[in-house]
Specification:
The structure holds two protein chains of two kinds.
Chain A (H helix, E strand, L loop, with lengths): L3 E4 L2 E4 L5 E7 L5 E7 L5 E7 L6 E2 L7 E2 L9 E3 L8 E8 L9 E2 L3 E5 L1
Parallel strand pairs in A: 2-11
Antiparallel strand pairs in A: 1-3, 3-8, 4-5, 4-9, 5-6, 7-8, 9-10, 9-11
Chain B lengths: L2 E4 L3 E5 L4 E3 L1 E4 L6 E6 L5 E7 L5 E3 L5 E5 L4 E6 L8 E8 L5 E3 L3 E6 L1
The chains are: A mainly beta, B mainly beta.
Amino acid sequence: EADIYQTPRYLVIGTGKKITLECSQTMGHDKMYWYQQDPGMELHLIHYSYGVNSTEKGDLSSESTVSRIRTEHFPLTLESARPSHTSQYLCASSAGTGGRYEQFFGPGTRLTVL
Amino acid sequence: AQSVTQLDSHVSVSEGTPVLLRCNYSSSYSPSLFWYVQHPNKGLQLLLKYTSAATLVKGINGFEAEFKKSETSFHLTKPSAHMSDAAEYFCVVRTTDYKLSFGAGTTVTVRA
């Protein structure tokens, strides 16, 4: 079944640790996105990718980095986690052009940095 | 720049009564608009989308929205609320070919 997956779903980690949030989709979509969402707030785009070897910064500045070596995989990395990184991170993907095609979202990773 | 404003941060309704979630948009061209729903501890699910076809758009779970260019609005409605409709709802506008801009969200609570 075509879907978009995120792991881990929940992560509690200490300050200074390096973490990678995984995102994979089985829909063959070329475009993928990372959003950050604080509780009760709107989503903010932090990274996006048009395809393999393409990555761009989003509207909200983030200390995280991303890579896109394979179409289906779009991991997000924090080299040194801080309490200010505590948030929910949502991955999404979309197909087609013109923005008509909706974005499909994963279940999210809720990150807590102590 | 394209953006959306959700006029209500919280809506509370009784089960079986209508639901209205208000959204105004700002766009320099004919917009693509979406409504997404987010249940607690879940990802976002698309309810419906407007892409310059019919102005009245029907979505899943009995929701529908009407695009009104003259009012720059895209309000979401449902004739009869169900307990399972309690969630966070986001109005979204396409800003470029690949990017979306989200509203602040409306929290819906349904009273038994």
